[in-house]
Amino acid sequence: MQRARRVVIVSALGYFVDILDLFLFNVVRQPSLRDLGVPVADSLMWGMRLLNVQMVGVLVGALVWGILGDRVGRLRALYGSILLYSIGTLANGLVGSVEAYAVCRLLAGLGLAGELGAAVTLVSETLPQRQRGLGTTLVAGFGLCGGIVAALLAESLSWRACYLVGGGAGLILLSLRLTLHEPALFMAAQQESVRRGSLTLLFATASRRSRFGKLLLIGLPVWFVAGIVIAFSPELAASLGTPGVTAARAVLCSYLGVAIGDLLCGLLSQWLQSRRRAMMLSLSLLLIGLLALLRLRGLSPNGFYLLGFGLGVSTGYWAVLVTTAAEQFGTNLRATVTTSIPNLVRASVIPLSLLYQQLLPSLGTIETVRLIGLGTVALAALALWSLPETYHRELAFVERDSTS
Questions:
Q1: Is residue 83 within 8 Å of residue 111, measured between CB atoms?
Q2: Could you write out the DSSP letters of every residue in 63-92?
Q3: How far, in Å, CA of 70 to CA of 89, rounded?
Q4: Distance of CA 305 to the CA centre of its chain
Q5: Comparing C-alpha atoms, which of 237, 393, 233, 226 is closest to residue 316?
Q6: Residuewise pLDDT in 10s, the chain (404 residues)
Q7: Rounded to whole angstroms, how far apart are CA atoms 210 and 10?
Q8: Residue 251's CATH number
Q9: How many Å separate Cα 174 from the centre of its chain?
Q10: Virtual CA dihedral for 65, 69, 72, 77, nearest 10 degrees?
């Protein structure tokens, strides 16, 4: 039990640093680009470009760290990812041009891709079935407070100092992670005569392909809200007649809501003994929140922040989603799936932002957000409706070539 507690605590700290480093760019985007000489009129364009570069790194890292986690060990892959994103984040604080900024965001994104999947895999394979959901909920609930701290840092430190703090925290985390051990389930699976971390095996059957695709669709609304609505909240708020909104405070309020929502959704899934029903309730609340945000005009900045908090609560099914991903697949593919699913969802901000930019000139900000937002919620609800329930599933199984 002491070992299990240590895994939960260190995993929660790891995800905290992951979110802190990931969202530093969102909260320091405007001052950093201004300091690097980017005109105010080009801030949105460059912001989306840098965000997409970061997400390209996340997309590549999603495959690299997950496959390595299944083949050579969860912890070995994790150490490499922490070291890479710590160095990349530290380097962000030293850049002198937007081109160098882009390279550093790419490296940071590549490293950050390995953290959440490893944390959920470690906790899921260490804790017994009845405590698994609670463990991953605590990891996500505390970890998502990293977004809150990122916003607070941006309010009190220069953008360069924020990156130096984030990178330094990653190196401290690396020293803590050295005290952990591989889960017994992973060690047992090493003795099985099966392929590990194989994309060919993952997509070999229609059932696996279907489950993987549905998990991706369920996560789309989370990163539409975080990566577009909240990240570019100053521009959206201005279109709604609410000037003076800052990205740092919007992220602060939103991620306070996300942290609370993750705890509530995780506890609800335990009470209902159903991952699907808990996530469906969150999606219903998100639909209400998006409709309210886009219908209200002339809000005060505090009113906009309050709505951002509500959106955060409604997207707080992130931990339950990643836990579900871990439960859907066998031990020889689990790290690949739990690392790739959240990061592919994160990287979905690339096509979503490109679609946003494509529709913006003809539809305007409000209609563009409404169309994409309602579309992602509808796709997520349809995918969730047909996804198998996994609450009671034991994880001591592997995926074989001849099974679905």
A1: yes
A2: HHHHHHHHHT-HHHHHHHHHHHHHHHHHHH
A3: 26
A4: 21
A5: 226
A6: 667 788 888 888 888 888 888 778 878 888 899 999 888 878 878 887 888 888 888 888 888 888 988 888 888 887 888 889 899 999 999 999 999 999 999 999 898 888 878 888 888 888 887 788 888 888 877 877 887 788 888 888 999 999 999 999 888 888 877 777 778 777 877 777 788 888 899 999 999 999 999 999 999 999 899 888 888 888 888 888 888 888 778 888 888 898 899 889 989 999 999 999 999 999 999 999 888 877 877 788 898 899 899 999 999 898 899 899 999 999 999 989 998 898 888 878 888 888 988 898 898 888 888 899 999 999 999 999 999 999 888 888 888 886 55
A7: 33
A8: 1.20.1250.20
A9: 20
A10: 50
How many structural domains comprise the chain?
1
Cβ–Cβ contacts within 10 Å for residue 86, how many?
Answer: 24
Cα angle 308, 357, 144; round to 5? 30
What is the C-alpha to C-alpha distance for residues 14 and 24, in angstroms, rounded to an integer?
Answer: 16
Alpha carbons within 13 A on the beta-carbon side of 40: 2
Q: Which two tokens stand for residue 380?
A: 């997520």
Helix (H) or strand (E) holding 368: helix 349-385
Among 256, 131, 176, 251, CA closest to 13: 176
Q: Which residue has the tokens 């959206």?
A: 236
Cβ proximity of 312 and 253 under 8 Å: yes
Q: Give 153's contacts (C-beta < 8 A, 6+ positions apart).
A: 24, 27, 161, 162, 165, 166
Does some domain include residue 396? no
- 């984040």: which residue's tokens? 89
> Does residue 193 belong to any structural domain of this protein?
no
Residues of the domain holding 379: 2-179+199-385
Q: Is residue 394 part of a domain?
A: no
What one-letter code names the amino acid at 258? V
Supply the pTM of this predicted model. 0.83
